[in-house]
Fold this protein.
Amino acid sequence: MEPVLHLDHVSKVYSNGRGAKNITFTVNRGEVVGLLGPNGSGKTTIMKAVTGLCQPTSGKITVFGADAVDQREEALAKVGTLIEQPALYENLTAWDHLVMAGRYYPNVDQARMEKVLEIVGLAPYKKERCGKFSLGMKQRMGLALALLSEPELMILDEPTNGLDIEATVEIREIIIRLAREKGVTFLVASHLASEIEKMCSKVMVLYEGEMLSCDSKEEALRLNPSMEDYFLAKVRDKKGSVVL
Amino acid sequence: MDKFIANLQNELFKLRKRKKYLVFLILGCAVCVASGLRVLAANFFTGQLGTGNISPQALLGNLMNANLTFILLIFLPLMAMMAACDLFVGEQADHTMRFSLMRPVGKGKIFFSKAAAVLVLCAFDLAVMYAVTTVIQLALGGGTRGIVSSLFACVLDLIPLAVLILFFCLVNQVVKGSSLAVLLCVVLYIGFIALGTYLPAFGGLLFTGYLRWHNLWVGVALPVGSLLSRIGLLAGYGLVFGCVGYLLFDRKES
């Protein structure tokens, strides 16, 4: 198993006391790892720290063997990211965004740009300004930008946020297909247990900034009828330990 | 270097897509045209032109040099502060800064390519206004006097302008709101200009005092010693603004 992402006792605590505390885990090549937790549990903080959008208060993050803080360029070279709402310029078209993003990667050409637009179903709207896009279209555009460089690791924060049922299933299938056929590694954050259950091979439960567990899907579902029950059991254990 | 150039291309692309910079350039060119016509009209109505007392060459020769005060002290600083605010605070406010931050490019390259994009925009506008002014000078019979020296002056004045741009980039790292950043840039810029004007002792120490430093280079003999100290002063300001600005940018979270 080749590790592509490793967090070693990473903490990022904001001035209001929230964030993520003492997180340690490894994501191996080809895995689809789900970060499951309620809003404010630290999922986005971890993802921001991995992509260099915020600097960890302590700990070390390694992406493809490169330090995420000191060796940003090497660390992010093979990473596709979609965090919170996609960063889109209202006055630029979908195509403009792809052209701009493509400049950072040597392997991106016009055919690849056309292809990612087809994958996310935005090909007919490539000349439209992103300011006119619906929330779902913006989310698809964010996914297109993340897929553009054919990354080996994709970091997706609530990738189906704002999408309708049909589009949610489509995105989920894209993730599963890329993982299975191309061996792409995924780190997906969601507060929906059902989504994590359908997509991921490994699940981590986050609660109030702490990592409560890290198990394979099989292990998680061995003693629990569903991922939702697994999550609730872990939270109950934590709350119980606090009461005791 | 390729990532720096990629980001520079993107920043320039974003600036090009904003119509206000084109509108500003058109306005700037209109002022350059109007300045030529104004000189001619004023002398025509006062009767000096046409009587043979004064020639159009004498009036309009070196027109660009006359326009440089407006261009260097008002037009380009205004353009630079708007562009810097759009590329820094503006992008932080609407979270589009993440577009570059999530790509494999160092934060230092992002910061300095944004500053470079503002400088390229200003240099482009300066070149266009130089061309327009030169055409007007030739078209109105002003001859070719001062055309080459004005070009030299324009190139020289890009150096203090780069320092001013780094200063605006630094100011953008200490505030969060776009309007506040523009306001702070304007107030500080006017403050420095006023300080240099009313307290000449400070004028030589402030970087804003060298925005028209091509005047220092004009003369029979170049004051080498004096120029070297001023080059050192500007380089020092540039280094401080660039380094502090980058340091603050690196620590900012998106």
In short: Residues 165-182 of chain A form the longest helix (18 residues). Chain A has a mean pLDDT of 89.
